[in-house]
Amino acid sequence: MKKYILAAIGIIFIAYGKVAIASEEKPIICNECVTFQDFHGVAQTLQNGNYIVVNLETRQARKFEVSSVGIGTSKTVIQQPLPAYVLEALDTYNDWKVYFDEVNNGQNPNIPSNQSNNLYLPFSLPDANGCTNAPDFPFKAACDRHDQCYNEGGGLSKCNKAFLDDMLATTEQITSNLSSSLFQKAILNHLFSSQARAYYTAVRSFGKEFYCNVNPNRPICLFDDVNDGIFNDPEGSGGTLYGGTSELYQPIGSTQFEYTVITCELWKFPDGSGGFYELMLNCE
Questions:
Q1: Side by side, which strands form the sheet with 240-251?
Q2: How far apart are CA 240 and CA 151, in angstroms?
Q3: What are 5-59's pLDDT values in tens digits?
């Protein structure tokens, strides 16, 4: 089954739910669409309206008008001329895609000079060093606040999740403040959101070392068997939270009276054989 995304200003519908959108052509992202029949088939699944169905990977786009008369009648899907702004928006998307691809390949590229002045960016914190081992743009303010959360001893998984939320909020601010078409706002939101998740994946994979450098006495830094909340969205893995929270007692000294209390959520996950295994997650 082909997957496609109905997008509006700052919204990817499959991920976040439907909202009302303007009368302009509604963008549909279908990176699996190749042939005309693929694009047309997607349009046939949509309600009445005008749509731009686009494959961002191949930069192909088609505009369709979808209409029907009465309840239960067949739909009419007619291809329309593609508006000029679509090609301009795809050029802008490509400029940023090249930039982020270079970032993800470990380079420190120049910001597209013809694009950066059009973006609204949140204020960053004074005396902060931005994104460690990664270009600051466009998430410097979020990186600053993430560093601040680590430095203030917030829970590792909570700081990382707040970082993702902060970057996604930045993406919303950037795209919603663009003076451009709904189509361009939607595809740039899709791209910047993907980059936010790439930064989030990086801190989940490598952030613990930095966290423990400033919080050496946190349980997660003292004991290797304390889960750091890497499954901060465990429902997506088929997990179920049950039993509330549990407390672990870990010795920290030479006698049985010296210990620290670690509070964890108790989760269970299917083991693939009809049973379950348990994990303590999001320990603090």
A1: 240-251, 259-270, 276-281
A2: 31
A3: 555 333 333 333 333 334 578 999 999 999 999 999 999 999 999 999 999 999 9
Interstrand relation of 240-251 and 259-270 (parallel, antiparallel or unpaired) = antiparallel
The string of pLDDT tens digits covering residues 70-122 is: 666 678 999 999 999 999 999 999 999 999 999 888 888 888 765 555 555 55
pLDDT beyond 90 at 217: no
Place of tokens 């309206």: 49
Distance CA 214, CA 212 (A): 5
Q: How far apart are the first and last CA of the chain?
A: 41
Show me where the domains of the chain are located: 1-82, 83-216, 220-281
Residue 132 to residue 203: CA distance in whole angstroms: 10
